[in-house]
Amino acid sequence: MRNRPEITVNVTSEIGKLNAVLLHRPGVEIERMTPQNANEALYSDILNKRIVDEEYRYFCGVFEKITNVYYVQDILERLLDDDDLCNSLVTQSCQMEGCEWLVDELMCHPTKQLAAEIIEGVPYKEGRDPASFADQRYVLRPLYNLFFTRDASSSVFDRVLINSMSFDVRKRENLIYKAIFKHFFGAEVLNAQQWDPRAHTEGGDVQIGRNNLLCIGQGIRTDAKGIEFLAHTFRDKPKFNIVVQELPHHPDSFIHLDMVFTFLDRNCCMMYEPMLRKTAEFAGKATTWIEIDNGKVRHHDCRNIQEALKKAGVEVEPVFCGGDDLWMQQREQWHSGANFFAFAPGKVIGYRRNSHTIDALDKAGFSVLAAEDIVNGNVKPDDYNRCVVTFAASELPRAGGGARCMTMPINRDDI
Q: What is the radius of gyration, based on Cα positions, of the chain?
């Protein structure tokens, strides 16, 4: 594609200084949920877009102050100017939804309108569409979860993993991200299901500990075959490590590893304490260190993720989501209290509502900054050694994800 950005995919840790990030502003698609289809859309509640817009304005506003921000819909519009790529995207989208008769009509629409329709959905039209689509209202379903840009794709070192989503309602997102990273950023893309159709991976379960270490959650979204694919992909490296944490399948707040564990700094992480202590919901959930040494693969059982990371060469001290009180830990983990995103070593962003977690970070030496002050130019994160940027959110957390879920890093400094 002409006029590609100069930025290339390079993410060798979870904490290196962020040079570029991919975001998607929640759009009309989130208003197209009802109580009847929310469960199918993987939501436990429906959202108020007017409030979401205000919350997200400060979230993305922080990134616009500190790094290069690319937006999914803007890139999609540019990609659709290429006739061949446009035809491929539209045809595959309609095939996945079983509405192939729409292709010719959609191909006649201006690219701006078409990009919106691919994301926001195409409503059922009597006389054009089979009556079997009438009850679900949309022939081409809205991509309700697209603003969780982390899940369907993952920057893994100098390549991008196009994740094999576990639920049909999200599989069409893969088409968009594959097009963006292959044709806009010019990146090499990987896909587990091309290796084995049974393999599933999702970005919330994939964390880059160091340039020779992946941390993977194994649960309802990422499975053993998906982890086997990652081990196979990096088996040729002289030394490589994969730390696997088994996750409970219930409740929904445990869908990904980044809901219970995220890196904050070189030697510091946010952690849900019951996972570390193997109490309550995590009793019996395995932690495994997979050691890859010149093609030889060895599995080692570990007591917990902290021990596994140490054996893999990374020592971290935890800050506990919710502080020291078990009830507060459970309450704040439910609303993504462990889901932080680091935009530089020791500089992170997360939900303000998780006040006990923020207090724990304050005690650990993270200066507490308000997103509003950064967006308005009154405060600069660069002036602080360690900081946590907090943004107000009541609606966004009800979607089931936090700051890391809503960010897809494209390029970071190596550490």
A: 21
Cα 57–Cα 59–Cα 60 angle in degrees, nearest 5: 70
Residue 131 tokens read as 């009556």
Distances (CA, A) of 407 to 155, 206, 399: 11, 13, 15
Q: Are strands 68-71 and 261-265 parallel, antiparallel or unpaired?
A: unpaired
- How many other C-beta atoms are found inside a 10 Å radius of the C-beta of residue 164? 26
- Position of tokens 């991008």? 160
Q: What is residue 69's three-state secondary structure?
A: strand
Phi first, then psi, for residue 405 (nearest 5°) are: -60, -30
Within 8 A by CB and 6+ apart from 243, the residues are 209, 213, 214, 215, 216, 287, 288, 289, 290, 305, 308, 309, 312
**Which residues of 120-277 form beta strands (DSSP E)?**
122-123, 138-140, 153-156, 159-162, 188-190, 206-210, 213-218, 239-246, 261-265, 268-271
Per-residue CA distances from 202 to 21, 182, 209, 211, 262 (Å): 18, 18, 16, 20, 15
The structure tokens listed for 86 are 């446009």
341-355 per-position pLDDT tens digit = 999 999 999 999 999
pLDDT in tens, 259-297: 999 999 999 999 999 999 999 899 999 999 999 998 899
- Helix or strand run (H / E) with residue 361: helix 355-363
Residue 43: pLDDT band with limits 50, 70, 90: confident
> Cα-flanking dihedrals φ and ψ of residue 361, to 5°?
-65, -40
> Which are the contacts of 181, defined by CB distance < 8 A and separation ≥ 6?
9, 153, 160, 162, 187, 189
Question: Please, are residues 99 and 205 in contact by the beta-carbon 8 Å criterion?
Answer: no
Q: Quick one: average pLDDT of 52-80?
A: 98
